[in-house]
């Protein structure tokens, strides 16, 4: 099966890391298709950037529809996820969502560790949107700058491990999510240095996207994720305007 | 003082209604500046459209920054509100937010009545985002089509009154919010036909925007609404890119 | 328009501060009518005193009914607010309520700072009564005595600023409410020494009371704030007994 | 031991019913001391009347302090309970509180059935104040008038049973509380006509008051129920003013 | 009346302590019948052990049915309580449940103090199961080993007092529950060394069990605690299999 | 990889259905190992039976430890899941848990449909235990008897579809979980007759168990799922006693 890894950030180096980490858990026969946003910011870190990234994610999925079996929105705050589920008939999985859901099978409450202080409000909102606030022990983030978003996980490895340890000791987390596309693959490397299970977002998303393809759930024609009726628009990308106008079939 | 009424829908007829209804409660000396989105859909009704409208709202406020004392994001789901509060140093009020907060002073729980079934998921999410789920008795919406978004409030007046009555009788609402920019001004007209207070979103927003200008709260330099540091971007509107890059002063 | 500032504490010095601070945000044409409780304690600080103050607030509003367009119950815990909304047909706003609602437009969560440790349980209960617990980051209070309730804001200014800073740094408050009638007007003075917006309760209440008068919501004849039927009583003030018995028209 | 049954309503007929019903579960050696409010309304049914009743309850307990081992505030909404726990060093139990706590041992969620529609808002607030909203299946009340508060339980017995049955069938209540002082003793009479356990508020309160006296918990000198420091007041009853001023020993 | 004290731990020394502490609050005429589990672990401390203890508790009550008026499941996590309420027609009270419910009458929020770190997850789950999470300030436990479960309360008295003080000072607990069967009777001994009321689980349970017997609630024939229909089983104790198959009458 | 399908019910026919349905989504190379409880009831339906089944599930996993890569507790209420995660170092997944987590990726709220009214309390408790109450729209169950647990899904197919439709129409469910081991495989058969996605519990569990094996999370040595220290016991199965005593390596 083919799974689109849609990175709504503009950094291709991050996309490469996502695909590499995802492949470690993909089943034989699963192909991960990389895609990087053509507009926006190198890495989404605020509510404002997430608003832009949400629109970008919808553009990306609209452009590639018909070429894959499922899609992953590969930024931790799941920009555009709700809208994507309305518009498209293939399964769409968010990276924050998948990480949190898999983490639920590994502990009572999970901690979230990430690389930038500015991410906290956005992350807190996506945790709440998924109804997971009660299972989230804490969100802990780096409070210092870094050189390059592509290599932040190597540069800050020691500090990130320390944050993970603190979510265990101080926040009573049973499991730690390493959050944010730039941290893809880090869980495997530091696995033995943290005393609780670690969850890698893209790996969780690949597992869940594969599972959804295999379970073959139908597209809803009722409920809040049914496809909206056709509608005119102006000024949108051709691909997205076509989907909204039902000119996509 | 000058208050921007930024309508993130593309229908100018709705913008006219918003300004007319707002003027009914504005203080002498307050000027409401109308603005209509240049791209998007005639009226936002789904999560996908809200994602697009969120980006549009940020573009609109970036374009007009420096010309007003406060801004209202004049669509009931408050698209882009969180991001706007990060980026800008003037007060920004959402229409759903203002309606709900004023409604809290008029009853234990409020009902929300609107004109399209497809709005419910988006509205439910904005109610939750504001932490108001516990004060919301119900969201009730029309389940039938209408001819024109500009005149839906006249065409469906009787049915909307009936929905308001049902939120009182069946859902125990103490107050009813008439939600959605296209219903601006309706509350004044039907006031005597519903046995509980009605709240008009744009009127509530004008009241709160004026109040914030008078209270002169400072722009946060700490907390989750502090302004993010400067950042490069690509493919965004010049106005918004400049704000994000701190090239706006 | 005329707005009654009903101070359910017995200290007239506090009433003076309330009116002075309120005038700073009132629109031209708005008159604030001061009133001080004739029985009770100098400043309400406990659940027991709040019970007494609740009855006093109802007495005060009953006595002055017909002379104003709206009333503010000018103690932070909003004593008697629910009962007042049942009995009277003019808008009534609580100072805690107004402060919290305005604070919601300025941040994700607000901190509450006040001048006496004994206030915390009462404040926590009014936060919960308004359904605002989820938006309240912390309640922090002075833990030391003071000389005079009339001048506590000058005497303890430095410590109060320190408490505000701690709600920002330790409790992640995005906005700080300076709570309690004796702190009226302090927000304007220390505005630049706290890195997040400050909210003054009486100013928020004036803004919301004015807004309600302009929005002209009808008195409920259904729902939990409809007026109860006439009832006999014994031993109450004549003014209140008349209202309860519907002898007030 | 001696337990004060302080009825904050002014109807002595209701006080008689309370004592009679309470005696059915009291241990040998327990004496129930009746007391009826000297001011207020015949039966508290609204938030405004509860405010008055809260002050009355504190007056009653202040007047009788030193003559009993524990006190019951014998109105279902527990008027003045929080304040009483601050001021006095003997155990004080609320009738709503005791009924709900005992009901928790008999079912997952309880229904509340009472005799007047106007009681619902007050009851809902006391349920929330006790943190019991999640265990409350529904509050169902009579929607018709009655002849005398003293005999409402006989007059409306059939309708009250019907309401109890509906909380079981429609609201999934596992247990039903017959709420309000005027229904004291009804549970014993209709026990076999409702298929789930019934709880009588005064009986639950007698059980818990007795238990507290036997368990001998100390008066808190820390926490939110520690006694406040002495304070001057004006215009209060001598008994209450003395307690507030610490002139009671 | 006769009340079974069913200790689902295998340590008879603990059973002795339970009965001794319970007798201190029992009414004249109440007999406490001791019973100790015949299989399981000396003291239940984990979710796995609680699963085993739940089955054991049902076996114990099935074996003794018909010989008592009410039963107490005398381990703090209330193993088997829900199932016992389904199967049996006499009142069954859990020790955690009774302690928390009585604690609610003594403070806004209670702290729980116990003797082993491994108990925390189980305790947290039973607090949540009872819907009491909002009233629980903290669970604090010893983090060090002890010599004998029978005498842990003497050996660790000083540390347990220190934990209690910390729940008051750091967690704002108004009342402290000394949790776990091995701490039965400790509250009476250290009462004066903690500034808030202490609650002993077995004493609370005796009070509530007595009260339920006196209040004579009927066995539910509807709702979630109605008795399930007869069912075959295999491999269970004869007593329990008979109850499940309705061969018990 | 090998995944144990541990059915804590005693009906082997149900085990067969579970394995057949699970195979439809298993990856090539995954082997599902069936196991049926040797004691207990044919199908767990009450809290009491769940207590017994929890102990049975631990016995089953203890007996088979070392022979598989992961285990599924194949009854919808996840009996023994928390204890299993403490005791064992391989991943353990509950069927209710997996169904709810996968359902979260398909809708805002899920409905649960099952075959026996007596299941509702147990199901409601496991939903709450997983912190999923906020995402559960309703639990709807058959209210009529059936001939054989092995074939209930064929016998009651029409009624079960009707219940599913009602959770969509009346309860606003976006996705429906067909709950209970006896319904394994039904989702595939009725997929086109319900307008929202259906989730089959065993299929969800297989997907998540496979994913966990691929993600290789470490066994916790800290947090609430760390393995408890060794402990003596009496009267337990040899396999389980050995695990509890750390005699299993």
UniProtKB/TrEMBL annotation, chains A, B, C, D, E, F:
UniProt-listed Pfam families: Asp_Glu_race (PF01177)
GO molecular function (one): amino-acid racemase activity
InterPro entries, per the entry: Asp/Glu/hydantoin_racemase (IPR015942), Hydantoin_racemase-like (IPR052186), Iso_Racemase_Enz_sf (IPR053714)
Superkingdom of origin: Bacteria
Family recorded in the similarity comment: Belongs to the HyuE racemase family.
Name this protein carries in UniProt: Asp/Glu/hydantoin racemase
Organism for this UniProt entry: Reyranella soli
